[in-house]
Amino acid sequence: MSEARSRLLATASRLFYAEGLHSVGIDRIVAEASVTRATLYRHFPSKDDLVVAYLTGADAQIRAQVEAARAAGHSPADTVRAVAETITGGIRSDGFRGCAFLNAASEYPAVDHPVHQAVLKHRQWFLDTVTELMADAGETPPEPHARHFVMLRDGAMTAGCLSDPAPICETFLLGVEGILKYRDASPKDRARVKAGRR
């Protein structure tokens, strides 16, 4: 990656995440990255290409966090917890403004748009990965619990930028513990939970 492309992408990523995709124009990115418009268009033929590159970078960062959690040698359940903690770490970070992918989907709702497709690709990878982790952490079918995890994550990422992140993170982690407890329960206990008995 050339120095100019790297600077452009870093500048665009910072502005896109902080202020939104449609609200940040090419002229501002060019000015803050200290490059010419010709340089920008040599590396990114359109703004859509730049937005997709921003999302690709965000995807790579999340994949690296998940892979680090998987490579740490934890038990299957603790690996799920470690992935959950990477999410709460992001929510607690300075400048947190929600999920980059959910934000992008709201600005580019057309399913066939390249930006929306980049969002769907990331989310499918994340769901598939969590499904694999849930399969290792219990004996019941993992798909419903993976979907539950992703829904909890989406809610936490949305709420985490609207109010105090501490109770949001606590609630999310408690929800993950509930999923893991259910997967570790005996068949009889799981049946009681499904029937609404305690």
UniProtKB/TrEMBL annotation:
The answer to keyword DNA-binding applying to this record is yes
- According to the UniProt entry, the coiled-coil residues are none
Record-annotated HTH tetR-type domain positions:
2-62
Alphabetically ordered keywords of this record = DNA-binding
InterPro entries per the UniProt record, alphabetical: Homeodomain-like_sf (IPR009057), HTH-type_TetR-like_transc_reg (IPR050109), HTH_TetR (IPR001647), Tet_transcr_reg_TetR-rel_C_sf (IPR036271)
The record places the DNA-binding region at: 25-44
What name does UniProt use for this protein? Answer: Helix-turn-helix domain-containing protein
